[in-house]
Amino acid sequence: MTDEQTRFPFGPDFQKAVLALMIKDPVVLVRGIQHLRAEFFTVPELSWAFSVITEYNEKYGRMVTEAVFVEELRRIDATLRLSYTTTIKGIFELDVSHGVYIKEKLLEFIQRNEFVRTWQETEALYKAGVLDDAFDHVSASVARIKAIDFSKSDRSFFFEEFKEREQIRMLEQSSTGNNNFPTGIIPLDQSFGGRGPERGELIVVFADAKKGKSIFLVNIGAACVRSFSGRVLHMQLEGSRRQTEARYDARFSDHLYTDVKRGELQNDVRQKLVREYDRLQGRLVVRGLCDFDRTILDVEAEMQTLIAGGFKPDMVIVDYGDLLSPRKGGGRGDSYSDQGAVFRDLKTFAQKHNVVVWTASQAQRPANNRVEDPEYVVRVRNIADSYNKIRVADAIMSLNQTSVEKDAGVLRIYHELYRDNEAGRLIKVHVDFKKMFIGMPRFGL
User: Fold this and answer.
1) What CA–CA distance (Å, rounded) separates 156 from 133?
2) Percentage of the chain exceeding pLDDT 70
3) In this structure, are 112 and 205 located in the same domain?
């Protein structure tokens, strides 16, 4: 198309947004491949990017990644590589929160380009003197252009669209990445079927006060980010965001929490941390939300803000669920029913956003010195406030530790339930609260 025909809203900025959606949205990719052509993109860098996206999908059946472009850019002439690299970086960084608008206008963009192509081909036939062929070509092309329906209604021609459905499903699977997010604690992951909790699940951790609930959740977040390239939103509802950040810094650096808080990391430790953080950028958001009467709507608002900015979490940590109020009525009423409603909201949130949700809850105040019994574990019957709040949980576990075990660096995780099945598994792990570490023992327990 000419510059006049492709000027706003169909110029290079619009075309970049189309490509950004093709690398992030499986539906746009599949339907775009069907109807878009490289020549529709008026800038050479964009036309090349479209070809890379489509050729990679055709060969491997997957959505293209930034790493693929890095490799392909090596083949570009050195005099042009900077321009191409800048363009590709811009596409991956583009905010596509306005994607609905782009999808709506994409049909018109395709139809206009098809019309121009048809006009040029028909004109060539006409000038060659084959009038019948010119007439047949324009007639067939007009019918084809009218049949293009990129912005489909919520309707399918079921049997005819099977191949498209299958391709979209496979692409969604590859673009979503991991559906399970292991904890990094092998015996605990075995209680989850060997692979950790799944998307859409709510996991609740119970413990007495000061038994490591928040530190445990930090370790879960670190394992997701570090080992499985997941994106984590950590909602801190008590204490400060800076405290949680310091815990993560101590966990990632394997260094003393007190040194982290005082800014006394040794230079070699700091440099190693910087290198790892450079690699993990875009994987962790810590959000402090310590106002009164917080509800699931506040968590939802933060989620929507991040998604609009291009950050889609795989895991959401809420530290902790007992501090949320029910979304209706503002303040607390009947504690028993309120807590049940809050945890149902968390489960609904996990399913709606297809994320793993981890949260914690307080056990009943200990009695009869049970805390010092090395055989005692917190069970669901010891839940404070409301048993209803764990009815919707997919997994329930507790953290247990006597003073002797604390001195020895031992913590017992009792994984009581997973979905409707009793897990009933007692797992001993190593703990070093000075370094915010909870995980597999470095030596046998």
Assistant:
1) 34
2) 84
3) no
Question: Domain boundary residue among 173, 194, 223?
Answer: 173
SS3 193: coil
Does the predicted model carry a pTM greater than 0.70?
A: no
Q: How are the residues of the chain apportioned to helix, strand and coil, as percentages rounded to the nearest 5?
A: 55, 15, 35
The number of distinct structural domains making up the chain is: 2
Are 192 and 313 members of one domain?
Answer: yes
CA atoms lying within 13 Å on the CB side of residue 102:
21
What is the per-residue pLDDT for 4?
46
Query: Which whole-number Å values give the CA distances from 269 to 73, 203, 218, 263, 273, in the listed order?
Result: 34, 33, 20, 12, 6
Tell me which residue has tokens 């470095």: 442
| 35/154 same-domain check | yes
DSSP 8-class letter at 414: E
Residues 111, 248, single domain; the answer is: no
Q: Which of 63-67, 168-172, 264-268 has the lowest mean pLDDT?
A: 168-172
pLDDT at 375 over 90: no
Are the CB atoms for 338 and 332 separated by under 8 Å? yes
Kindly give the residue spans of alpha helices, DSSP state H, lying in 312-416: 335-353, 403-408
How far apart are alpha carbons 206 and 393 in whole angstroms?
12
The verdict on 338 and 229 lying in the same domain is yes
pLDDT tens for each residue of 97-106: 667 778 878 8
- pLDDT tens for 161-216 read 677 677 666 665 555 556 788 898 888 988 888 778 988 999 999 988 888 999 99
- d(Cα 159, Cα 326) in Å, to the nearest integer? 45
Handedness of CA 432, 433, 435, 437 (dihedral sign): positive
Verify that 302 and 383 share a domain, yes or no.
yes
The answer to the question of residue 179 being in a domain is: no
Q: Is 167 in the same domain as 216?
A: no
User: What's 265's DSSP letter?
Assistant: -
- Domain boundary among the residues 138, 173, 208 is at 173
Residues 350 and 20: their CA atoms lie apart, in Å, by: 26
Residue 109 CA to residue 11 CA, distance in Å, equals 10
